[in-house]
């Protein structure tokens, strides 16, 4: 019992210190909340990444069967529903597409497959062309680097006098040790 009574003053002292700490934190939070509106206005927005420029010579992506269906039916739906917005007409066409059976979708799937073949052929040609352009670019760059390196080889190499002076003024006494040997 005596040990519990001895620990009570220490416990109360620690509790008092902890309460003071919490009060200090509360004051700090209140100060931060009052400053917060001005801090938010100072913060900068994160930088947006720049999009890579699209190559105008790159082949166009193949279209899905739905896109072929959409192109065919768009004018018909616009004539029927003149009062509706384009987004509403698009949703109507999408519902009709979902209602179509597999047999009714087959012609559009065939068109999509043909378009996929077209894209693959154009992509092969495009990749060959771009590889040739890259290799030409690298060859030019290599020639420029080779010319620069050749000019460096022909230049006589002269020792730098500044480095030798720095060695003589070595503050750690390294030059004294080297001179002794």
From TrEMBL:
Residues 59-127 form the HMG box domain. This is HMG box domain-containing protein. Keywords: DNA-binding, Nucleus. GO terms for cellular component: nucleus. Residues 59-127 bind DNA. The lineage of its organism: Eukaryota, Sar, Alveolata, Ciliophora, Intramacronucleata. GO terms for molecular function: DNA binding. Pfam families: HMG_box.
């Amino acid at each position: 019992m005596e040990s519990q009574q001895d620990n009570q003053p220490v416990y109360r002292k620690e509790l008092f210190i902890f309460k003071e700490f919490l009060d200090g934190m509360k004051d700090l939070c209140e100060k931060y909340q009052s400053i917060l509106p001005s801090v938010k206005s100072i913060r900068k927005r994160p930088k947006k990444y720049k999009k890579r420029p699209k190559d105008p010579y790159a082949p166009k992506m193949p279209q899905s069967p739905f896109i072929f269906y959409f192109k065919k039916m768009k004018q018909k739906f616009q004539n029927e529903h003149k009062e509706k917005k384009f987004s509403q007409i698009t949703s109507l066409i999408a519902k009709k597409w979902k209602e179509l059976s597999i047999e009714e979708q087959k012609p559009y799937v065939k068109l999509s497959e043909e378009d996929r073949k077209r894209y693959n052929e154009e992509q092969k040609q495009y990749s060959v062309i771009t590889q040739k352009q890259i290799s030409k670019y690298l060859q030019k760059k290599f020639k420029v680097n080779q010319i620069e390196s050749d000019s460096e080889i022909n230049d006589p190499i002269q020792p730098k006098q500044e480095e030798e002076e720095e060695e003589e003024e070595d503050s750690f006494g390294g030059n004294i040790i080297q001179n002794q040997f």
